[in-house]
Amino acid sequence: MTSATVVLATMGSWGDIFPVIGLAKGLTDTGHDVHVAASPAYEELVTGEGLSFSGIGPPLGFSDYASDPKILSGRLGGFAGFAHLFRRFIFPVLDRYVDDLATAIRGADLLLAHPALVAAPVAAEREGVQWDTISVFPGLIPTAYAAPAPTRVELGSGSIGRASHRAAWSVARFNMSRLFDGPVNRSRRRLGLSAVSDCFFAPVESGRPYLVMASPAVIDRPPDWPSNVTLTGFVTWDRVSSFPDPHGLEEFICTGDPPVLVTLGASSSLDPQHFYRHAVEAVTGLGRRALVLTGPTPSPVEPPDDPRVFSAAFAPLSSIASRSLAAIHHGGVGTAVELLGAGLPQLVVPRAFDQPQTAIRMQRLGVARTLPWGRASTERLARELAALLGDRAYREAAVAVQDRLAGEDGLRNSIAVVDSILRG
């Protein structure tokens, strides 16, 4: 089809930006003029892949977010941390996000934005640019078949369960409206735009295309999702040109039994507390080797002086997960997706944001055991890891999911949907 100018705008951590880079590279390869708009902190990451980049908002990096670990609060199903993130870092500079994004999309044919990037619809309306949504996390789409946050009791999909879920979503809608409508409408008034309500759910309720870059082999599509929502399959990418390969990693992997991978991704590594130490003690206490990826943690993680332990800030999961024995991780979507693609059993220790929901999904797939963040002592981690490694059912379930994913091409499907949108 004819080349178009497409802006992909996102926010969040590595699990949000990596799939956007993968999609941007794919769209570029098909002839489109693609620009990525995100925090200025990601400029080197994006331009290192040969992509055009526009910074939106202040240059906040992981060290800035690490200064306020309240954003990782798991209270109220994670809403407390989510709300604190926006009140502390986004709302005070929302006008800047809107103005920067408006500049980035000026003259574009299409804006595809993260569903929580509330500056996107404001900037798109100001510039008269078509705005649609791309997401890696389906938990922001209301449905009577699941609660908006994990519950202690599984309510099921019967009439009682559906009624309870609708009531929970009503509460969530009320809370989101109180949190978002005021700041967004102040920004809209500044530009002479009319006020809106329930703005957080505008992406899915607008009727405009909403791409969820997740696999139907992992995500059961609820029957009440609107027709504008499309599951395209996972879009994975993590071969970061600007990150050097860790010295000694290949030798470590190749000169012993497959290690247990330990990681908190990016967001949870901002305040790791004692996780790495407890996890390494659990792994080595079971006589296993540990491969620790510390992420952008603000304080250096000092691994024990033990040849069974290797530590690095980053390594592509796409190159190491398939050569690992199992993984202990935080439940970030990007991490879980790569582990599923490698057929790896998982011990998930969720803390905040979408992590508890991801942990539940992994458990329901039969590929994982879970342990709450606040209970992740050395002893409990060791007990759960031993149970994971001692039951072949977890490995068999993980390999079965891996086989299903191998038949999908999320990137090609996503590009096809974008091309369809551009054709009108």
Provide the low-confidence segments as ranges.
none
Count of helices? 16
Please state roughly what percent of the residues sit in beta strands, choosing from under 5%, 5-15%, 15-25%, 25-35%, 35-45% or over 45%.
5-15%
Shape: globular
Mean pLDDT: 93
The N- to C-terminal Cα distance equals 12 Å
Provide the helix percentage. 40-55%
Using DSSP, what is the number of strands?
A: 13
Strand order of the largest sheet: 3-2-1-4-5-6-7
Largest sheet: 7 strands, parallel
- Supply the helix-strand structural class: alpha/beta
Radius of gyration, in Å, reads 21 Å
List SSEs in N-to-C order: EHEHEHHHEHEHHEEHEHEEHEHEHEHHH
Topology:
Layout: E1 5-9, H1 14-29, E2 33-38, H2 43-47, E3 52-55, H3 62-66, H4 79-90, H5 94-105, E4 110-113, H6 119-127, E5 131-135, H7 159-190, H8 202-205, E6 210-212, E7 229-231, H9 249-254, E8 260-263, H10 275-285, E9 290-293, E10 309-312, H11 317-320, E11 326-329, H12 333-341, E12 346-348, H13 355-364, E13 368-370, H14 378-390, H15 392-406, H16 410-423
Parallel strand pairs: 1-2, 1-4, 2-3, 4-5, 5-6, 6-7, 8-9, 8-11, 9-10, 11-12, 12-13
Describe the protein's architecture and organization.
- This protein has 424 residues and is an alpha/beta fold.
- Helix content is 42%, strand content 12%.
- The protein is built from 16 helices and 13 strands.
- It has helices at residues 14-29, 43-47, 62-66, 79-90, 94-105, 119-127, 159-190, 202-205, 249-254, 275-285, 317-320, 333-341, 355-364, 378-390, 392-406, 410-423; strands at 5-9, 33-38, 52-55, 110-113, 131-135, 210-212, 229-231, 260-263, 290-293, 309-312, 326-329, 346-348, 368-370.
- Strand 8 (260-263), helix 10 and strand 9 form a beta-alpha-beta unit.
